[in-house]
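During data preparation, a discrete fold description was generated, and the record follows.
___
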Amino acid sequence: MTVTLILDGYLEDFLDSVRAVIENSQAPIYIVVNGKQDFEPLEAFKPRVSINYQKQRLGWSNVVNLLLEEVSSDYITLMDPSTRFLANPFPDVISTFSDGVVGVGWRGGLINLDDEWRSVDDKGPGEVDVLFGYFMVLNRKFAKAVGANPSAKYYRNADLEFSLALREAGGKLVQVELPLAQERHHGYYDVDSAYREKHSKENYQRLLKRFRGNLGILASRR
């Protein structure tokens, strides 16, 4: 199990997230420093933390695909820096990987068919259509074979697109309650609103074009 994080500014909050992982688990941490920025304080966490510095900033899906390639563990945790460990989530996560499950996450839901696939309903723990990128643990080899869509530069809705691609490939996704909390999500609240809306819409339109109407890839309604 490897925890992965993307550093994209807001270093102090990022350091809090790293410390929480270290204090509450034994998992190694792999960090992509996404573009030119200060990351020297991360050096203090070595050797527990590995750092991959990308001078040129990459889009969200390209970073995800890089992580799937570079990390060697059987399971990989994709986690937003806004997420905080309150205790060790991994025993509950690992026990959920069975019977074709390839992804386990903290938050997710079922595609709202009445809304013509344009929204997601949180139904609580159980099998889901999509997992959100706040915290998702994936079977790395399965996820690598599927791959995240390189067209997704921004995270929002790209996690949904990736989730549906995993289901299309035959994998199951499960939402579970975990000892996690969320602090301020800088990737949403502190980016230019025009940029956020433009790329969020592009990601969702691409999702609709590829998956809408393919009921066979969805989990049972509940």
